[in-house]
Each structure stands twice: as structure tokens, then as C-alpha cells.
Amino acid sequence: MAAEKLTKGRLVQIIIMLLILVVAFTWRTLTHSDITFRECNTNACTFSFDSNHFSITEIDDGYLLSGNITNYELVLLHESSRVVKQKGSWKIETNETQLNILLTSKESNDNAKITLIR
Q1: Percent of the chain predicted with pLDDT > 90
Q2: What range does the domain containing 84 cover?
């Protein structure tokens, strides 16, 4: 690119783009939420997340996570496991001795990483 003289229009364009980037980074920093970590070591455990109560129960072929799940997404961090959504609960089919799952609120985008240990 050949060297060009900096015009007033080009300077205004650079300043506007810089302001947009500063606002975007500031907004993202202020609205960012940290991940909440939970660990369940027993056959059954309960926890609160995003003002809702959940319970995890160990079953024959995995775990059953129950609670108000309509506004949440569940992501398994293991490819060998499978999630089946049931009425009011998620059935997590796995034979892993330690399972990490990520529970995300659709409303607030808050995350909870849950470690299940048999």
C-alpha cells in the first residue's frame, strides 16, 4: 500500500473504530461471569446454581441430574458419555469414574462446572 496523507475523514474513521473497540472490550469485561466449580463425591448431592436447586443421584448406568432444567443447557466434557433429556431431569449415561459437566444458564449465561466422582 502506498503512503497516503492522513485526511480528516480518515482520522475520524480511525477514532470512531477505536471508540467502538474500547466500548466493546469494556462491556464484555463488565458483563463477564466466572465459572462456578462444584464437586460431588457421594451417591447423591444437591447444590444451588443461579438461584435454582439441583440434585444429582447416582443410578446404575450413570447419573440423574434433576431440578428446574428448562432454562439450562448441559454439556458433557467427555465424548464417551451421553445425555438423555427427560421430563424435569437429565439422565447422564456413562461408565466413567470421574465425569465433568458444564451447566449453563440460558438467561444469565452463568456457568457451573460440576465434577462427579464415583
Answers
A1: 18
A2: 35-117
